[in-house]
Design a protein that fits this description.
About 35% of the residues lie in helices and about 15% in strands. The protein is of the alpha/beta class. It has a domain of about 150 residues: Rossmann fold. α1 packs across α11 and α7 crosses α8. The radius of gyration is 20 Å and the shape is elongated. The structure holds glutamic acid (GLU). Glutamic acid binds next to loops.
């Protein structure tokens, strides 16, 4: 690292809604390797905005799973469920900029009226509620969600793993919700505030979140945060092509801890994603000396855990 270059700050931001599965492990591993291979820091944050699905027990299990893997963190910031007063301040900034408006569309209207989003299976919001009159708003008689207006502008993500990704927020996404009708802030706003306030310089996470990056870059600009570097790592697939998920019990860390060692698991992951030339047991620290973004395969990674069992 160059003398004047600041140490990178990465983060791992899991949702504690279940036991860690291999997909989360892989995202955490690459986030950790990327900063630790360059003398940087890792921030841990529990994304528990959805208080129905998340729990403190799962958060404890996540921490112990990370420790088992040897993926330590330098700081844990407050969980999102405790930060709504902070998010209020950023919401008010958007309001003061005149960028927010209330949206009364129902879920079924949203999916029937709007065209599908480019890449993530949601919709492009056509701006239905952008210009409601005060009388129209009052007539709904219920609490609205709040949307932020987006500009007609192309956003470019130079992704460390995926290369260049571009999106015009107006035509590919539309004005998006920042606070739900029940008052809960949405992921896009919370993650932007939390990463920005923690001084995160690189965001490494699963490829399924690549299309969220332009929305977050837009909010970063409005809130006055620097853009972090992005690295969206490939998804892990079972040998039959299924995407590994929380439903695959045999891929969760409870099962894996009973059947294998952290070194064997890291050796398999390191080999499958291209960091290692051969599959051999290895610690996280040793793997950090082998890591470089150039080695990482950008595409889906097939993982056969049978060699571990
Ligand atoms: N909380 C998200 C998850 O567990 C990750 C969000 C992020 O890394 O930005 O999938």
């Amino acid at each position: 690292m160059h003398q004047t270059e600041k140490a990178p700050v990465g983060r791992f931001a899991p949702t504690p809604s279940g036991r860690m599965h291999l997909g989360n492990v892989f995202a955490a591993l690459i986030a950790w390797l990327s900063v630790k291979s360059r003398g940087g820091y890792l921030v841990l944050r529990m994304e528990d905005l959805d208080t129905q699905r998340t729990s403190g027990e799962f958060a404890d299990l996540l921490r112990s799973d990370l420790r088992w893997l040897g993926l330590d963190w330098d700081l844990e910031t407050d969980p999102q469920s405790q930060r709504s007063a902070v998010y209020d301040q950023y919401f008010q900034k958007l309001e003061q900029m005149g960028l927010l408006y209330p949206c009364y569309c129902t879920r079924s209207q949203l999916h029937s009226v709007n065209a599908p989003h480019l890449s993530d299976g949601t919709y492009v919001y056509a701006g239905t509620c952008r210009n409601l009159t005060e009388a129209q708003k009052a007539a709904f008689g219920r609490a609205p969600a709040w949307r932020v207006k987006v500009p007609d502008r192309i956003w470019t993500v130079e992704d460390l793993a995926q290369g260049t990704y571009t999106e015009n927020l107006l035509s590919d996404c539309g004005d998006f919700v920042v606070r739900r009708a029940d008052g809960v802030y949405v992921y896009q706003l919370a993650v932007t505030v939390d990463d920005g306030e923690a001084g995160v310089t690189e965001v490494v996470r699963g490829m399924d979140l690549l299309s969220s990056a332009p929305r977050q870059m837009y909010l970063q600009e409005l809130f006055g945060f620097q853009h972090p570097a992005y690295g969206h790592v490939p998804m892990l697939l079972a040998p039959d092509g299924r995407r590994l998920s929380k439903r695959d019990k045999d891929m969760d860390l409870g099962f894996l801890q009973a059947h294998t060692t952290p070194e064997a698991l890291l050796g398999l992951l390191g080999y499958a994603c291209g960091i290692l030339d051969t599959q051999q047991p290895i610690s996280a620290r040793e793997l950090a000396t082998e890591f470089s973004w150039n080695k990482l395969k950008p595409q889906d990674i097939y993982l056969d855990i049978s060699s571990l069992l």
